[in-house]
Specification:
mainly alpha
Length: 142
Protein backbone atom coordinates (compact mmCIF):
# COMPACT_ATOMS: atom_id res chain seq x y z
CA UNK A 1 0.00 0.00 0.00
CA UNK A 2 1.44 3.35 -0.99
CA UNK A 3 1.90 6.15 1.53
CA UNK A 4 -0.58 9.00 1.24
CA UNK A 5 0.47 12.28 -0.32
CA UNK A 6 2.47 14.41 2.09
CA UNK A 7 3.61 11.49 4.28
CA UNK A 8 7.00 12.60 5.59
CA UNK A 9 8.06 8.94 6.12
CA UNK A 10 7.46 7.93 2.51
CA UNK A 11 10.35 6.54 0.48
CA UNK A 12 12.15 9.22 -1.44
CA UNK A 13 11.19 11.95 1.01
CA UNK A 14 14.10 14.37 1.26
CA UNK A 15 13.08 15.93 4.58
CA UNK A 16 13.31 12.78 6.71
CA UNK A 17 16.22 11.97 8.98
CA UNK A 18 18.49 14.04 11.12
CA UNK A 19 20.25 17.03 9.66
CA UNK A 20 23.97 16.46 9.12
CA UNK A 21 26.29 17.21 12.06
CA UNK A 22 28.86 18.73 9.73
CA UNK A 23 27.91 20.87 6.76
CA UNK A 24 31.28 20.84 5.00
CA UNK A 25 34.31 18.67 4.51
CA UNK A 26 36.50 21.35 6.09
CA UNK A 27 34.33 21.40 9.22
CA UNK A 28 34.64 17.68 9.92
CA UNK A 29 38.37 17.73 9.08
CA UNK A 30 38.85 20.54 11.63
CA UNK A 31 37.08 18.59 14.40
CA UNK A 32 38.99 15.38 13.61
CA UNK A 33 42.30 17.28 13.69
CA UNK A 34 41.20 18.82 16.99
CA UNK A 35 40.63 15.29 18.38
CA UNK A 36 44.14 14.17 17.41
CA UNK A 37 45.63 17.40 18.84
CA UNK A 38 43.75 16.72 22.08
CA UNK A 39 45.15 13.17 22.21
CA UNK A 40 48.72 14.40 21.69
CA UNK A 41 48.38 17.22 24.25
CA UNK A 42 46.87 14.96 26.95
CA UNK A 43 49.06 11.96 26.01
CA UNK A 44 45.97 9.89 25.25
CA UNK A 45 45.96 7.14 22.68
CA UNK A 46 43.45 7.90 19.90
CA UNK A 47 40.65 5.34 19.61
CA UNK A 48 37.70 4.77 17.30
CA UNK A 49 35.27 5.19 20.18
CA UNK A 50 37.10 8.32 21.35
CA UNK A 51 36.84 9.80 17.87
CA UNK A 52 33.18 8.81 17.67
CA UNK A 53 32.39 10.53 20.97
CA UNK A 54 34.49 13.60 20.11
CA UNK A 55 32.57 14.04 16.86
CA UNK A 56 29.29 13.85 18.79
CA UNK A 57 27.98 10.51 17.54
CA UNK A 58 26.21 8.07 19.83
CA UNK A 59 27.66 4.88 18.33
CA UNK A 60 30.36 3.60 16.01
CA UNK A 61 27.68 2.52 13.55
CA UNK A 62 26.45 6.13 13.42
CA UNK A 63 29.98 7.18 12.48
CA UNK A 64 30.04 4.50 9.78
CA UNK A 65 26.63 5.62 8.51
CA UNK A 66 27.85 9.20 8.36
CA UNK A 67 30.87 7.97 6.46
CA UNK A 68 28.51 6.80 3.71
CA UNK A 69 26.83 10.19 3.22
CA UNK A 70 29.31 11.57 0.73
CA UNK A 71 32.58 10.52 -0.81
CA UNK A 72 34.37 13.45 0.86
CA UNK A 73 33.22 12.47 4.35
CA UNK A 74 34.00 8.83 3.67
CA UNK A 75 37.59 9.62 2.73
CA UNK A 76 38.16 11.84 5.79
CA UNK A 77 36.69 9.35 8.28
CA UNK A 78 38.53 6.40 6.72
CA UNK A 79 41.82 8.33 6.98
CA UNK A 80 41.13 9.13 10.64
CA UNK A 81 40.39 5.46 11.36
CA UNK A 82 43.58 4.48 9.53
CA UNK A 83 45.60 6.91 11.68
CA UNK A 84 44.11 5.29 14.80
CA UNK A 85 44.90 1.81 13.47
CA UNK A 86 48.45 3.00 12.78
CA UNK A 87 48.82 4.13 16.40
CA UNK A 88 47.79 0.66 17.60
CA UNK A 89 50.16 -0.96 15.14
CA UNK A 90 53.13 1.15 16.25
CA UNK A 91 52.64 0.54 19.98
CA UNK A 92 52.00 -3.21 19.61
CA UNK A 93 50.91 -3.77 23.23
CA UNK A 94 48.51 -6.57 24.17
CA UNK A 95 45.44 -4.35 24.29
CA UNK A 96 46.49 -2.88 20.94
CA UNK A 97 46.62 -6.35 19.42
CA UNK A 98 43.09 -6.98 20.69
CA UNK A 99 41.96 -3.71 19.12
CA UNK A 100 43.65 -4.55 15.81
CA UNK A 101 41.86 -7.90 15.76
CA UNK A 102 38.59 -5.99 16.10
CA UNK A 103 39.68 -3.94 13.08
CA UNK A 104 40.02 -7.07 10.96
CA UNK A 105 43.62 -8.09 11.60
CA UNK A 106 44.38 -11.79 12.13
CA UNK A 107 47.14 -13.62 13.93
CA UNK A 108 46.18 -17.20 13.22
CA UNK A 109 47.91 -19.47 10.78
CA UNK A 110 46.00 -21.10 7.97
CA UNK A 111 46.79 -24.80 8.00
CA UNK A 112 45.73 -26.93 5.07
CA UNK A 113 44.73 -30.35 6.33
CA UNK A 114 43.97 -31.73 2.89
CA UNK A 115 45.78 -35.01 2.19
CA UNK A 116 47.20 -34.98 -1.33
CA UNK A 117 48.98 -38.31 -1.00
CA UNK A 118 48.35 -40.82 -3.72
CA UNK A 119 46.38 -43.85 -2.53
CA UNK A 120 47.36 -47.04 -4.31
CA UNK A 121 45.71 -50.43 -4.28
CA UNK A 122 48.03 -53.39 -3.34
CA UNK A 123 49.01 -54.26 -6.94
CA UNK A 124 49.82 -50.62 -7.74
CA UNK A 125 51.82 -50.37 -4.53
CA UNK A 126 53.90 -53.42 -5.43
CA UNK A 127 54.55 -52.04 -8.91
CA UNK A 128 55.63 -48.66 -7.45
CA UNK A 129 58.00 -50.37 -4.99
CA UNK A 130 59.52 -52.38 -7.86
CA UNK A 131 60.04 -49.20 -9.92
CA UNK A 132 61.68 -47.39 -7.02
CA UNK A 133 64.01 -50.33 -6.28
CA UNK A 134 65.08 -50.42 -9.94
CA UNK A 135 65.67 -46.68 -9.89
CA UNK A 136 67.86 -47.05 -6.79
CA UNK A 137 69.68 -50.03 -8.30
CA UNK A 138 68.38 -52.54 -5.77
CA UNK A 139 67.58 -56.22 -6.42
CA UNK A 140 64.24 -57.87 -5.81
CA UNK A 141 65.76 -59.56 -2.78
CA UNK A 142 66.90 -56.28 -1.18
Amino acid sequence: MAAHKGNKYALGCTTNGRPPKFETQAEIEKVIQSYFDYCIKDKEKPTITGLTLYLGFESRSSLDDYCGRTKDYSYIIKRAKLAIENAYEIHGQTIDIFALKNMGWRDNKDIDLKDDRLILDPSQREQRIKELKEKLGMNESD
